[in-house]
Amino acid sequence: MLVRTTVFKVNYQVRGILSPLLNSNRKYAALAEAKSVLESELESIRVAGTWKGERVITSKQGPRINVDGSRGDILNFCANNYLGLSSHPEVIEAGVEALKQYGAGLSSVRFICGTQDLHKRLEQKIAQFHEREDAILYASCFDANAGLFEVLLGPDDAVLSDELNHASIIDGIRLCRARRFRYRHMDLKDLEDKLKESQSSRLRLVVTDGVFSMDGDIAPLVGICDLAERYRAMVFIDECHATGFMGPRGRGTDELLGVMDRVHIVNSTLGKALGGAAGGYTVGPKTLIDLLRQRSRPYLFSNSLPPPVVGCSTRAIELLLQSNEIAESMAAKTKRFRDSMTKAGFTISGANHPICPVMLGDAQLASVMAEDMLKLGVYVIGFSYPVVPKGKARIRVQISAAHSDADIDHCVNGFIQVGRKHGVVP
Ligand code: PLP
After folding, report:
1. pLDDT at residue 236 in the model
2. Ligand 1 mean position to 236 CA, how many Å?
3. For the chain, how are helix, strand and coil distributed in percent, rounded to 5?
């Protein structure tokens, strides 16, 4: 009995001494477990060779940038700054003016106290630009894609989506309860089969990127609209890589292919050609936009776009409504790049789009060549599996209206020099 009491007392005292330690161990136990799981995830990404590093830019976005660790101006060929408006003086000025007049932000969602006249003006301008009834702003196009399908489609409806659509479309579709059909990339026959299969649904929506960003290929919208009309389906396009510069007036792939009045809903971004700040939107029939304002979760439950961002985007759209000059200059430079590279023996994928994928096949080659290009002062990025299919590694070059002809030639000459070194071109 005495022995037991003594043991108990000793245990009790030891636990007393150790208890802060035990408590702190308990406090960190869950975190330690999580960290070990996360570390092994990170290690598997490193081992797979799919780690995505981030270079740090120490200047404004533009055709020439400073990159941490590299000396001097670097020629930048990997931004979605298609029209060079990210650092256009008038765009910056409009942002500064909006900041001064309307403040840094709204500290509110739109429907509580987050709508300023400048948000309404931008929505009107966007609707006017796309020649649609109405527009609704989001914090990003990712949000616009996340917020659309769930509101428009219910369990009695069907959505037919290109297999290579952007990740945000895939996620948005996951959130909706419609029947899902995934058709083969740009395959009209497969789309028709799926449309036939979904005829019993209440509503049908065909969903496609206007331009696919990895290959710069353009959705066959005429064929898609023909099928949609035959099988009574609506058509949605994501125009992130088209708004502002595709088509005679830069309205998008629907304008380029003459189907502006046959595509019902367009989502796009303010974060690429239209000034590059941030923000996204949906344009389409007023009834849809009205319903999105009532029900779309990323719109209802996220802060309003900051006034400086709205100011920049509004000016960018005004510039495009005034003239086609910037878009035309970008098209001419795209042609210069594509023609010179093809002549030098490179294979450039895609169709006359400023996304110019220089096809190399081998992942290692794409990565080493991109590094060599940076040594020559040209910033381009290699893409490999899983971002693109196995065996289709490439360096993606993106042309901007802000590049000069000399910049384009410098980039081409760099590719020739590096391509010869690695035996890609003669
Ligand atoms: N859709 C497409 C086709 C995109 O390329 C992107 C951006 O990479 C998005 C949507 C998302 O746009 P945001 O950057 O405005 O969220």
Report:
1. 99
2. 15
3. 50, 15, 35
Q: Is the peptide bond before 386 cis (omega within 30 degrees of 0)?
A: yes
Whether ligand 1 lies within 6 angstroms of the CB of 269 is answered as: yes
Closest atom of ligand 1 to 212 CA is 3
Residue of 125, 124, 103 whose CA lies nearest to 114 = 103
Phi, psi of 376 (to 5 degrees): -90, 10
Q: Is 298 in the pocket of ligand 1 (CB under 6 A)?
A: no
Q: What is the rounded CA–CA span in Å between residue 278 and residue 142?
A: 11
Measured at the CA of 415, the angle between CA 412 and CA 417, to 5 degrees, comes to 110
| CA 12 to centroid of ligand 1, rounded, Å | 61
Segments of the chain with pLDDT less than 50: 1-2
Identify residue 249 by its one-letter amino acid code: R
Residues 6+ apart with CB under 8 A from 260: 130, 131, 251, 252, 254
Confidence at residue 7, expressed as pLDDT on a 0 to 100 scale: 52
Tell which phi-psi region holds residue 270, choosing left (phi > 0), alpha (psi between -120 and 50) or beta: alpha
Catalytic sites, residue numbers? 213, 241, 272
80 Cβ inside 6 Å of ligand 1:
no
Q: The tokens of 145 are what?
A: 């894609």
DSSP string for residues in 256-308: HTT-TTT--EEEEESSSSS-SSS-EEEEE-HHHHHHHHHH-HHHHTSBPPPHH
pLDDT of residue 28: 87
Query: Cβ atoms within 10 A of the Cβ of 361, count?
Result: 14
Q: 124 and 170 in contact (C-beta within 8 Å)?
A: no
The pLDDT value recorded for residue 16 is: 64
Residue 156 · residue 176 · CB < 8 Å: no
- Backbone φ and ψ for 136, nearest 5 degrees, come out as -135, 135
Tokens found for residue 41: 């995830």
Give the C-alpha separation, 159 to 91, whole Å.
Answer: 38
Are the C-beta atoms of 266 and 132 separated by less than 8 Å?
A: yes
Q: Is 399 in the pocket of ligand 1 (CB under 6 A)?
A: no
pTM higher than 0.85: yes
| Distance (Å, whole) CA 263 – CA 235 | 5
CB 354 within 8 A of CB 82: yes
Distance 142 CA to ligand 1 centre (A): 6
Residue at 188: amino acid letter:
L
